[in-house]
Each structure stands twice: as C-alpha cells, then as structure tokens.
UniProtKB/TrEMBL annotation:
Residues 115-149 have a biased composition (Gly residues). The lineage of its organism: Eukaryota, Sar, Stramenopiles, Bigyra, Opalozoa. CDD domains: RRM_SF. SUPFAM superfamilies: RNA-binding domain, RBD (SSF54928). Residues 114-156 are annotated as: Disordered. InterPro entries: Nucleotide-bd_a/b_plait_sf, RBD_domain_sf, RRM_dom. Residues 31-108, 161-245 form the RRM domain. The keyword RNA-binding applies. It comes from Blastocystis hominis. Keywords: RNA-binding. This is RRM domain-containing protein. The keyword Glycoprotein does not apply. Gene3D superfamilies: 3.30.70.330. One of its GO terms (molecular function) is RNA binding. It comes from the Eukaryota.
Amino acid sequence: MSQLHQSNAFSVPSVPFHSADEYTDDPIDDCKLFVGGIPNEADESVLRAYFQYFGPVRSVEIIRNRETGISRGFGFVVFYSRISLEDALQQTRIEFFGRKVDIHKCLPNAPNAAGGAGGAGGASGHSGAGSSAGGSGVNGAGGGNGGSGANQQQQQQQQQYRLFVGGLDDTFTDEMIQMALTPFGEVKRVNIIRQTDGRTRGFAFVNFSEQRPVDRLIQLQSLNINGKRVVFGSANVKKNKGMRG
C-alpha cells in the first residue's frame, strides 16, 4: 500500500534507483515539466514535496490570477537533471488530494517574431504619403489601406497557426484545453465548437502564436487530457469561393 504524505496530499511514488553520477546538471529547457489540473488545496510546497522524490528540484511555480492570487490550476516544475523529469513522466497516475493531474514535458518556446505594422494613411485634406505598406495617401485616400492589410495579414497568421482538436465531450472547457497545450507553445485562443443548446460538437480549434506547436501536436496525433484521449489534426482554412482574384 502506498505511503501517504502531508495529510493525504499524495501517495509517495515508486522511483527507480540511480547513482549520484546519473543526476547531471542539465539545461532548464530539458528539465521543465508542465503540471495541469492542480487542485486549489495544493500549493508550491506540496508540488515540491512530491516531485523531489524524483531528484533535486530547481524551482516550482503555480500560475495564479494576478488580481486575486487564486491558482489557475496549472504550473511548472523545473528539475536540475533530465533523468528526474524522465522518471516523473513514467508515472502512470499522479494525484493531489484525490484529484488526478496531467504532466507533460515542456517544449522550449521560440522567440515570437513581431509582425510589421501596416502603413498609416495620409492625413485628411492633405496630400500626405503613407508608408510603403499602405502606399501614397492623396487627400486622405489610399494610405489607409496599409492598416487593413495588416489586419488581414494578422488574420491569415491566426488561421495558419490553428490546430484541430477532436474527441471532446461536455466535460471539456476552453481553460482545460489551454492548460494541457500550453507546454507546447503559447496558446492564443481556444474555441470549442458547440451546438445551439451549448453542448459540444466534439471538437475545437486552438490558435497558437507560431507554427511549431501545431506541427508538433499533429505529429503526436493524440494526447491524454483529463483522463480522455483527444486527437489532433490540421485545421486548413478553405478559401471563400466568392473572393475575387
């Protein structure tokens, strides 16, 4: 029978033996673990107490609401050694205060490239020149197209970085999906498609800030989220037939 720790906060895990030489000091990106579904009763000390069974822990952070300080239900654990993270990932089930949590290895995020802004339109009533993106603005006309061009480009980027998520039931929420996929990259938006009565249609679309997490999740094909298997696929956007060439 598993030994319980800290007023039944968790069961002590079974961890394989490693010699001291195996616990190397590895880069943070190789040792960072995402923990989702954390109950409100569990704070950083509980997470540290549990995960230190796998080896020395560099840091523990539970993400909280900036205004209220209430936990948002997920956080990050950083080990010193890669082998500690690998041992943690071998656990088939981890519970805190009787609630199952999900863990995934965090993928290093590439720096976000800021897109260029569209050109400003010419001033009204003046023959002003807009920037190169918007073209020349004569009597306030023409230059303003740069702004709309930038908006269109932003919409295209959002569609390009979009992922299809299937296999959902009515227990899934936008926040639950965001917490589970955050380790793969910055999640900009989650949209669970619902029927008129509010029930899910079984799938959702997720927008990331870049393409890499989309490709990675499509490569994985599926993931266990909250005890259920969800599948990933490409979310190609069909062009409107009525668009002019």
